[in-house]
Structure formats: C-alpha cells, structure tokens
Amino acid sequence: ARGSRAASRAAGAHNVCRLLARRAHGFYARDAGVAHRKNLGLLREIMCQESTKFKNVWTTHSASPIAYERGRIYLDNYQCCISSIAQEPRILYQKPKCSKSEKIEDALLLECPLGEMLPSPSDYKSSLLVLTVQNWLLRLSADSGEILEKIYLAGSCCKFRYLSWDTPQEVMVVKSAQNKLPAAARQAGIQQSALFYLAVFQVLPLSFTGMLEINKKIFGNSVTDVAVSNGILIVMYSMGLVRLYNFQAISEQFMEQPFDLGHEFNWNGQVGVVGKYPFGLPCNIKITDTPPLLFEAPSLENAFQIGGYPWHYIITPNKKKHKGVFHICSLKDNALAKNGIQDMKCCSLEPDWIYFHPDMSGRIIHVGPNLIKVLKLKEVKNNADQMEVAEDFTIVANRENCENNTVTVTASGRVVKKRYNLLDDDPEQETFKIVDYEDELDLLSTVAVTQIGADGKAHLDFRCNEHGILLKSIPLLESWDVTFSHEVYFDRDLVLHVEQKPNRRFSCYVYQMVCDTAEDDECSSHEKTERVFCKKGGRIFEYI
C-alpha cells in the first residue's frame, strides 16, 4: 500500500511539473486564450458548412470614402460610425458635419494591450487615432466619437498627412507631406533643405518619443518618400534606390533632449507646453551627419519587401523592361535564391503582385490574373547555405469555357482569323482581383470576377491556408464593374464590399453569416427583390 501511495505521489508530482511547464509555454486548458481559439475553430467549421450562407443584409451609399475597422463602418470623414454586427444598421454615433479646417486626413484603430495597467479607464476600450488637416492628433472613443486626447503637432512649417505603425499597437509614426517650395520662391532662389518630418509616439498611454527632419543635406536631393517600420528608417529615392537605417540608433545618437506631453518647455527661444497650441512638438532629433547604412538595394518604383526565414527580400530590377519580374534574395549576403526569379509573363493591363504571406509562415504569395502561387523557402539539398524557392500550392482561375482560339469557322464555312489575342486579365475571363488572409480563422480569401458586357459577377472564396483547398464560395449579389475601385473585407462572420463609382460615389454592401433552412432557400429569391428602405440619422439604408 505504501508503495502504491508513493507511486501515486510521484505520478502526481510529475503531472504537476508537466502542467507548470505547459503553463510556462502558454498552454493552459482553462486559459481565456485557449477558449478563444476553440471558439474561432468552431466558427470556422460552422462557416464552411454547406448549409451556412452569407446574405446581403443591408446596403448604404455615401458621397465620401467609406472606411472599415473591426466591426465599425465609418462614413462622412469619420463623422458617422455604424455597427456592422447587427442585421439592421445601428448608428453608434453621428456628429455634425465638420468644416474643411477640421477634415480628417488619416486614421488608425487603437486597441487595448493585454496584461498592462493603464492610467485611464477609457484606455481599456478601443479608440481611433485621427489626424486633422490643421495638424491636430486626436484620440477618439471608437464607440461614441468623444475626444479623449488632443495633441497639437506643429504650426505652418509642415503639413502632417499620414499615420502608420512602426510596431503595430505599440509605436505610431505621423508623417508630413513632402515640403515643396512654391514656384515663385524657387525662381527667387530661396533654398529649403527640409523634405519630410516624422513624429514618433508610444501608444496607450500616448507619449511623445521624438520628431525628426529628413534633410536633403544629409540624405540627398532625390529623396521621394520615407517611412519607419519595425524600427527601420526607410528612405526612397527617385532613381529607384531604397536605403535602410536603424531608427533606434538614430534616435539615441541624435536626440538633443527628451520631452513629455503636457510639460512646459523652453526650446530655441520658444516657451510653451509640449503638444499644446500654438507651439506643438519640438523637433528634438537633429540628424547632423549621415547615419550608418544598414542596407541598400536598387528596385523599380522603390518596391522593396523583407520577410521569410531566414530573412530574404523581394525587389524588381531597376529597369522598366523588368517590370513584373521579381527577384528573391538573401538579406544576409544579397545572394539570389535558387529559382528566385519569379516571372508570370503576364500580358495584362494590371500587373501581377507579390508579397510575403501575412501569416508569419515565411511563405510568399504571387498573384497573377488567372494564377495564385504560394511559394516557400527551403534549404537546397546538400547545401545548407543556399535557399531555394519552391511551390507550396497553386490556385487556378476557372477558365474551362474560355478558349482563346485565333481561328474560328462560321456556319457558312468561312474561316475568320483574329488579329489580336485576349489579354490575361480580359474581363470576360475569370480573373483574380483580391487575395487576403483572415488571421483569426486561418483562411485564405480570394475574389474572382467575370464581366460580360455591363454585368460583372464576383465570388469570394474561402480556402485552407495550409493547402489552398476550396472550402466555401460566396457569390456577391451586386454587379461588379472592373473599371471601378473595390475593397472587400472578410472579418470572422462578416463580409463587407466597398465600391467607388465615378464622381466620388461610394457604396457599402454588408453580408452576414446565416445558417439557412430549406424554407429560407425557397424564399431567398423573393427576399432579393423585397427590400426595405429606411432613414436613420439622415442617411438612407436598404435592407431585407
């Protein structure tokens, strides 16, 4: 009996140690993250069932661009916010029409970080960071539009226009438009060395890291654009050159003095409060010498991407004749990977495109008019120092009935020869227009379109991200004109189609997941014609 009890205690201790080890690695059966992942797995299974449908539950139109962020649809330059979760449109807030001086130039959704203590209860809810035309950075409640924080960036010396993430949900970058002197000033011989300004912030709580000037005396006259991403300062040049610098090293080396938002400062003879009108933010990172260069590469139209494992980059050789040709090279030594030249040889109006897969697998997605290639990097056999590009899987457009014959015979027996061949992206042939990845459900989504005459038909397909197997296809009911601009958002159980028509007319079609019965199927065609129009908040909605 003693032996059995000792063995039982030993087994129990072993199980406890194993449980603690699993906890240390993030595995715990009752952990909220585990439950969340299980729920998303169930949602994916339900979504891919044959009986599950996606229905166009409501539609609205706008004279200004329509934006979507995490279940919220923004219209009228972010003055109106509508929940996309309900089957009927529900307006979360509607603000009075703003003046031109209050126009919002750009916006980012800010979500609460997990496991951190924040200074204000409002910080634990989603908010929207917006940049106005008058250089104000505002943090708004995502659900009410209430202003939570307000920061003045700068006076008339520059116009800030763009928001982006350096590190998503952690470090934000505010970029100015390129400074250009008026023609009269240039003719008068006035010189201006500042090209761009970048202001960097930590978020939640919002804190000022620093502002720097991209100066032609340091970086050269031919700079066309700059960006900060993942701690790297990226500088692009008109001759197709891309240069990378360590942004953190630049901040540490050239920071003249740190500043905190809301604190008084005395800077270059100016006395004021950091982030308040009329002084704004001081330009406290002064680059006085060319910083050490991390990397540079010539690429057509400054197209440059880094990803994969080990690190690789994708460029197009800097000659127009190479447009549509992509080189995949090692970041370590610039060596071209085996099979690293990817060329679909498309004959199309719209070019093919390539990018690293956003699922962090290190794979590469190459999209052409009728073909999607998912590529992977792997070691060359018997040579561990070299990598090769291999196909993981391919997706082919359905063009079974589209034969491109150059010679046809009429009913009378007359032979007719075509003087031209169809383009690869001819609208009468099924063509891929959008490829996206739903990270929470681990699904690859593709939009393919066929347009005959004025009537275009599109369908959204869900595919297994690992093997590309088709799991579900959803027809989009509205006509798809290939000459218009389109965006399709797939977010869990929601599909949103935003269309821009000529003369700045925008339409938003909201599809939601429903589990249909046979009775629903019988009346579905009736529902397509029986639609209700209602007016909410001065806006007309069309829904079932």
Automatic annotation (TrEMBL):
- Give the GO cellular component terms, alphabetically: Cul4-RING E3 ubiquitin ligase complex
Report the superkingdom from the record.
Eukaryota
Q: Name one Pfam family in it.
A: DCAF17
Record-linked InterPro entries: DCAF17
Give GO BP annotations, semicolon-separated.
protein ubiquitination
Designated name of the protein: DCA17 factor
Protein species of origin: Chordeiles acutipennis (Lesser nighthawk)
What's the gene? Dcaf17
